């Protein structure tokens, strides 16, 4: 049995793992000594990260449980956020039996805190893609970018300008919680407060997804303010991100155009085979024009990415890796 908070990363694999394991998801305020004693394994999912505040009394309880219980504790995280609340994530990682991370880049940092660190990648919930409705496709080229802090809107606007000059009818949508001067960036439509299922529906009728990993100083300031990361860790934070945007694009038959940062994208994207690596708006423009004039090449790239994701980066794959992890753990106990 293992437990964790009900964040998306744990909740989604739980749907598959519960067929094989005795699993209970439990939000930390509902955890007590009796519950800890009933578990063989407890996975602490990103507790104390982001802007989450945990009471000092509960923090004391957690460390007492880790030190005095026969239950095995693991800390799971998918972002390089270890310094908030007096370095609570860092201290929990060091105290736990091990850590679970989502990328090799993240492992390179976390293994310095706990040598028993394993990688279990995020996976795309393809069944959820299938359930989400398909919106009516418009007679224009659709381009999207998902960026919580609004990174890349200048590049998107430049891309829109180039496509307009080339006579390509298009629509560029930026899904973000941030705001910007729409008069200054007329080619970009800002969409806020969109649910995950709505994003999936949008992707199903989107031709190209832009992942812009080159971030401005303003973006870094927001990371520091919103998530409490150490400013010295900004590059490591960005490069430790997983390839979820690639998985989501591939599952919805959407071409991914991505910068080489975060590192996961330079590892996952085989340039020209399952996606394209770009460094500016002109490169994105040229790839789009090339593929729109060569539908056979476009279909080949789409199919390569789809098969790649379904076979290697689906939620089923993530769940199998969790099962392997628990099998290995059971042997070692």
Give a concise summary:
It contains 15 helices and 10 strands. It is of the alpha/beta class and 333 residues long.
| Count of DSSP strands | 10
Number of helices: 15
Rounded mean pLDDT is: 84
Percentage beta strand? 5-15%
Report the order of strands and helices: HHEHEHEHEHEHEEHEHHHEHEHHH
Which secondary-structure class do the elements indicate?
alpha/beta
Helix content: 40-55%
Largest sheet: 6 strands, parallel
Uncertain regions: pLDDT < 50 for 5+ in a row? 1-7
Q: Span between N and C termini?
A: 14 Å
Oligomerization: single chain
Task: Kindly provide the radius of gyration, computed on alpha-carbon positions and rounded to a whole number of angstroms.
Answer: 21 Å
Q: What is the 3D form?
A: globular
Q: Strand sequence of the main sheet, in spatial order?
A: 7-6-5-8-9-10
In words, what does this structure look like?
The structure is a single chain. This protein is α/β, with parallel strands linked by helices. It is built from 15 helices and 10 strands. Strands 7-6-5-8-9-10 form a 6-stranded parallel beta sheet, sandwiched between helices. α12 links the parallel β9 and β10. α1 packs across α15 and α11 packs across α14. The longest helix has 18 residues. The protein is globular, with a radius of gyration of 21 Å. The relative contact order is 0.12. The N terminus is likely disordered.
């Amino acid at each position: 049995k293992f437990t964790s908070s009900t964040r998306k990363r744990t909740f989604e694999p739980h749907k598959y793992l519960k067929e094989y394991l005795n699993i209970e998801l439990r939000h930390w305020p509902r955890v007590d000594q009796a519950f800890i004693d009933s578990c063989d394994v407890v996975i602490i999912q990103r507790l104390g990260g982001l802007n989450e505040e945990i009471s000092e009394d509960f923090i004391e309880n957690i460390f007492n449980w880790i030190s005095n219980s026969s239950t095995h504790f693991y800390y799971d995280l998918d972002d390089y956020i270890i310094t908030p609340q007096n370095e609570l994530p860092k201290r929990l990682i060091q105290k736990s039996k091990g850590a679970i991370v989502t990328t090799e880049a993240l492992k390179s940092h976390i293994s310095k805190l706990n040598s028993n660190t394993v990688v279990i990648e995020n996976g795309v919930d393809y069944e959820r893609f299938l359930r989400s409705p398909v919106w009516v496709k418009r007679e224009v080229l659709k381009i999207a970018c998902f960026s919580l802090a609004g990174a890349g809107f200048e590049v998107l606007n430049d891309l829109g300008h180039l496509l307009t000059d080339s006579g390509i009818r298009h629509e560029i949508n930026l899904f973000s919680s941030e705001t910007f001067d729409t008069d200054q960036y007329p080619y970009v439509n800002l969409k806020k407060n969109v649910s995950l299922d709505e994003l999936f529906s949008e992707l199903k009728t989107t031709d190209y997804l832009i992942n812009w990993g080159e971030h401005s100083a303003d973006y870094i300031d927001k990371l520091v303010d919103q998530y409490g990361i150490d400013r010295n860790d900004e590059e490591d934070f960005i490069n430790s991100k997983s390839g979820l945007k690639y998985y989501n694009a591939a599952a919805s038959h959407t071409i991914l155009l991505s910068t080489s940062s975060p590192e996961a994208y330079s590892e996952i994207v085989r340039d020209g085979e399952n996606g394209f690596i770009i460094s500016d708006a002109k490169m994105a423009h040229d790839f789009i024009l090339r593929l729109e004039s060569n539908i056979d090449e476009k279909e080949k790239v789409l199919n390569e990415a789809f098969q790649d994701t379904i076979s290697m980066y689906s939620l089923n794959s993530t769940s199998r890796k969790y099962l392997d992890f628990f099998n290995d753990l059971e042997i070692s106990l």
